[in-house]
Amino acid sequence: MDEKPDENFRNRVATSFAKQEVMRTIGAELARVDYGIIEIEMPFRADLTQQHGFLHAGILSTALDSACGYAALSVMPHDAAVLTIEFKINLLSPGKGSRFLFRGEVTKPGSTIIVSDGRAYALTDGPAKLIASMTGTMMVVRGREGIEG
After folding, report:
1. What are 31-69's pLDDT values in tens digits?
2. What is the CB neighbour count within 10 angstroms for residue 45?
3. Element housing 91 (H / E)
4. For 81-100, how does the pLDDT look when each residue is reduced to its tens digit (9 = 90+)?
5. C-alpha radius of gyration, the chain, whole number
6. CA dihedral sign of residues 119, 17, 30, 33
7. What is the mean pLDDT of residues 116-145?
8. What is the CA 144 to chain-centroid distance, rounded?
9. Does residue 134 contact residue 144 with C-beta atoms inside 8 Å?
10. Comparing C-alpha atoms, which of 32, 36, 4 is closest to residue 17?
11. Residue pair 130/121 in contact by the 8 Å Cβ criterion
């Protein structure tokens, strides 16, 4: 982006994340907030599974969308907000683990459109297992009533 990065991006991301009722509903928490990189973690919960006992694809999509969106917000100017305008998810392996990690990272910043890539991992006693990947297109929103941070 052409503009100077917002030095207060960590606080902006945390404040916006705290307003997301859906993240609270699924038990997700911010685990890492760096410039262009966001990590969200959540525990396994049986009430968020599909019929086979795996984390539901809708929950995976929701958490990855937030990780990608907040990665984009972290590189936006202080007066901008973020909205997802498109994403593609690949479900690579069943969502089976005791905890889950969702990492979003800015791939291509821009003044109007930002592309972020996300990865979801199942965490167990062994090594983390990649279970999903996402590419999201995020819009930089300015001056729209009711849309901030």
Report:
1. 999 999 999 999 999 999 999 999 999 999 999 999 999
2. 11
3. strand 81-91
4. 999 999 999 999 999 999 99
5. 15
6. positive
7. 94
8. 22
9. no
10. 32
11. yes
Number of Cβ atoms within 10 Å of the Cβ of 78: 13
Which residue is associated with the tokens 């685990």? 31
Neighbour tally for 51: CB within 10 Å: 6
Sheet strands side by side (includes 129-141): 29-34, 37-43, 99-108, 113-123, 129-141, 81-91
- What distance in Å separates the CA atoms of residue 149 and residue 124, rounded to the nearest whole number? 34
pLDDT value, residue 148: 74
Position 62, amino acid: T
Q: Which two structure tokens, joined as six digits, stand for 57?
A: 């694809």
In the prediction, which pLDDT does 1 show?
A: 46
Contact criterion met (CB below 8 Å) for 63 and 45:
no
Two tokens at 18? 């705290």
Distance CA 80, CA 72 (A): 11
Q: What is the pTM of this model?
A: 0.93
Cα gap 32→4, rounded to integer Å: 22
Residue 84 near residue 22 (C-beta atoms within 8 A): no
Report the distance separating Cα 91 and Cα 86, nearest Å.
17
